[in-house]
Amino acid sequence: MASQGVKLGLGVVGIFAVFVGGYMAYVHHRNVVDNAAPVEVVYKSDPDDLVFLKNEHPMSLQDEKDLKGRTLWMSAGGQMNYFPYSGRVDYAHSPGVLLGAEKIVVKDAVEQAAAKTPEATFRIPAGDKQVLLVFTKDGDSKEYAVPVGYVEKGAYTFATDQMFFYEDPHKLYAHWGPEIWKAVDEHRAILGMNERQVQMALGQVSDPQGDKPGDRVVVYDDQGKPKRVTFAHGKATKIEDVAA
Predict the structure, then answer these.
(1) Which of 107, 109, 206, 236 has its CA at 20 to 30 Å from residue 83's CA atom?
(2) Exposed (0-12), middle (13-18) or buried (19+): which is 51, by Cβ within 10 Å?
């Protein structure tokens, strides 16, 4: 989009925002006394930070039941065990964890007293009862359940908004491109990924070894097969298996 010049009075500083190639660019103009050309500095935002993520703010079991028929995608990959469901949740036989960007279709929401096991309560406390979404996985007609909240002394607490995307992340983050998304959907890290992309691919269970995102080493659990990823200038530059 073409933009017209902005004339500012002597000594006045102006800051305005424009979109440049998908980035939000903050352009800083300052006029100087000798009428020399204005100094222009452009700050580019990470396009990932401009993605709007919907929240549903559930407050009751009925709010969770209202998700019936909806398609959700896992955001908190690698953290949440899911369990077989056939009228009751079978906490004793978890097939595994839901992975990043994995798609589910919600069938119902139920309450059940939770098993006091790490698989059942790793992220969602047992409370008096857990609230679980009943769902089918993409291409699988079997029903499963995953904890999304709990009720204690009549008060509900939910993590649904933090656990799921309510819109397809492949569209939300379409700017990642097909090569990155192919790796994410295959749950592989590849060189050139940023931290958000590696986290989506390998899961959120990780051990950052440094305080500066994009310039540090992060060890990802990757379903018990740890990977050490080195990031420099926002990109993965080295990916290693961690010896047991």
Answers:
(1) 206
(2) middle
Evaluate the CA torsion angle 163, 54, 142, 147 in order and state its sign: positive
> Which CATH code fits 61-165?
2.30.30
Q: 82-137: per-residue pLDDT in tens?
A: 999 999 999 999 999 999 999 999 999 999 999 999 999 999 999 999 999 999 99
| Residue 84, token pair as written in the block | 């077989």
Residue pair 113/131 in contact by the 8 Å Cβ criterion: no
Q: Which helix (H) or strand (E) holds 198?
A: helix 195-202
Q: From the centroid of its chain, how far is CA 106?
A: 19
Please say if the pLDDT value at position 41 is more than 90.
no
What is the H or E stretch that residue 146 is in?
strand 143-152
CA distance 172 to 188: 20
DSSP 47: G
Where do the structural domains in the chain lie, given as residue ranges?
Answer: 13-45, 61-165, 183-241
Q: pLDDT band for position 36 (50/70/90)?
A: low
Closest to 40 in 3D by CA, of 5, 75, 79: 5
